[in-house]
Amino acid sequence: MVLCTLSSVLGTRSALRLAASENNKAQSTKYRALLIDVMSFLNNLIKDPKYQSTEPRKPEEVTDPDVIISPDTRRENRMPPGQSRTKKWPVLDAHGTPDVDLATWSFAVDGLVEHPQEWSLDEFMQLPAVRVYADFHCVTRWSRLDNLWGGVPTQELAKIVGIKPEAKFVLAFGYDHGWTTNVPIEYFLNEDSLFAWSHDGAPIPPEHGGPVRLIIPQLYAWKSAKWVKGVRFLEDDQAGFWEEGGYHMRGVPWGPGDGERFRWS
User: Fold this and answer.
1) Cα(63)–Cα(74) distance, rounded to whole angstroms?
2) 209 with 227: CB under 8 angstroms?
3) pLDDT tens, position by position, 242-254
4) Are 136 and 79 a contacting pair, CB within 8 Å?
5) What are phi and psi of 241, to 5 degrees?
6) What's the whole-model pTM score?
């Protein structure tokens, strides 16, 4: 009886030691996997060409006299209420990146204009261009400071098509499943507003709205339509995709309180 009991105890201890050993191996494997994930994240972060490793420049440090300086960058505190700075360039959209065929890409302007126009990508790229130094504020509470955009100024398109006096709003259309957004014409025609095809000296990648996206620096970034394919000038305001869901009809980051994020702001 004693021998059987002793054998049973030794067997139990051996099983426990084996189980503990297997558990330690499992924990070690999980740790190594976690360490690999962390190192992979840091490696991607370092390689990210859009990651900002330095402090944002001040407007006066942009020495090229041809660069348009967005007025909001001259604020003593460039961060709107409720925002925090990101050094990355997060990717956000409603439906995912659409498959845009550059060979058939076109951009149209219609509505309350004297001369409706349509351009191919090659024709659009040949229009007069500017560069704009601006900050970029997302309604989801992150801001990317110090961006250099290049593209066609909205004022140039307005000059070409001839806006009628009764036009008060602009509706922008995107290639992503009928997506739209509305912009008051005074913000659309600001000197720092443009249809951009470059960011920080490089073509805008598809996930960030390339080949061409609208940039309205003085409004929240959802008004800067990605994959833009045209605009329509209107007399009355017309809610776009996010505005239909409750986002603000104007969207000024520096608006009252927490900014003009929602219609009830």
Assistant:
1) 14
2) yes
3) 999 999 999 999 9
4) no
5) -60, -60
6) 0.80
Does the structural domain 66-244 have CATH classification 3.40.50.720? no
- Domain residue extents for the chain: 1-47, 66-244
Whole-number Å distance between alpha carbons of 206 and 49:
15
Compute and round to an integer the Cα radius of gyration of the chain. Answer: 27
Please count the CA atoms within 13 angstroms of the CA of 90 that sit on its side-chain side. Answer: 16
Count, in order, helices (H) and strands (E) of the chain.
5, 12
Provide the pLDDT for residue 9: 41
Angle at 152 between CA 115 and CA 255, to 5 degrees: 100
CB distance 92 to 140 below 8 Å: yes
Helix %, strand %, coil % for the chain, to 5? 30, 25, 45
Closest CA to 131 of 72, 192, 81: 192
Euclidean distance between CA atoms 218 and 250, whole angstroms: 10
For residues 189 and 185, what is the distance between their CA atoms, to the nearest angstrom? 6
